[in-house]
Amino acid sequence: MTDLKNLLEEAAGAEPGVTDADLTADLLRGQRALKRRRITGIAAGAVATALVIGVGWSVLPSGTTSGAPAASVTKKPTAPGPKPFDQDKRKPPVIPAAAVPLVANPKPFPGVITCDLIPKGWAVRIAYASPIAQQQDLYDPNLDAKKFHGATYTLTIRQTELIDEGEGPTVDKYSTPWTKLPKVRAGKYLAVTSGVPGSPNGRQEVYIKPGKSTKIVGVSNHAYNLAWDMNTLLKFAGSCHYK
Predict the structure, then answer these.
(1) I need a surface site. Which of 16, 57, 138, 168 has the fewest CB within 10 A?
(2) What's the pTM?
(3) What are the residues whose beta carbons fall under 8 Å from the beta carbon of 156, sequence distance 6 or more?
């Protein structure tokens, strides 16, 4: 075996020597190859990212791009709504020289509340109704209401109730319990009022509690054309009750 190896080495000749220059060249070639692979990988990743972003933009709604502020949209002007009462510049009806008298009511009012008295010549309508609340308006059917301020010619009756929120039963528009509010007489009932007996015509309110339940009747006088003082309003409110 040794003789055969010697024969082959003699036939191939002497083995070339490896210098430091050869080793340095091999090292440089290896470093360049590694750098090319890294650059190729980075470039491929950038292309893939660009493709993903391009696809994302292409599926967004037309005219918008992700990350870019949306263009402002000019809204179409809308028609103004109805004027609230406090912006109604029309005047109230003229206050008559003599107050409209109270007369006996011949038939029950439409709605959940009725009154035994009614202003002479006036009518009643249901102005608002829901499963838990209702409002009835008394008005002069001969008055051209379009000429006047929207809250100056009706006498309003409201269905409301005492509610106990922990400090005792209270009525709407008041935070003091009903039992602690000062009372005046309205017919056979005690009433809470926003004015005092003898106060002149104007926006006056009366709350009465007809019966032992928590139901309350709220009566608000906005009708300048009634020319009522608080005494007359109390007389009318005292005739009202739930059916």
Answers:
(1) 16
(2) 0.63
(3) 127, 135, 136, 137, 138, 218, 219, 220, 221, 222
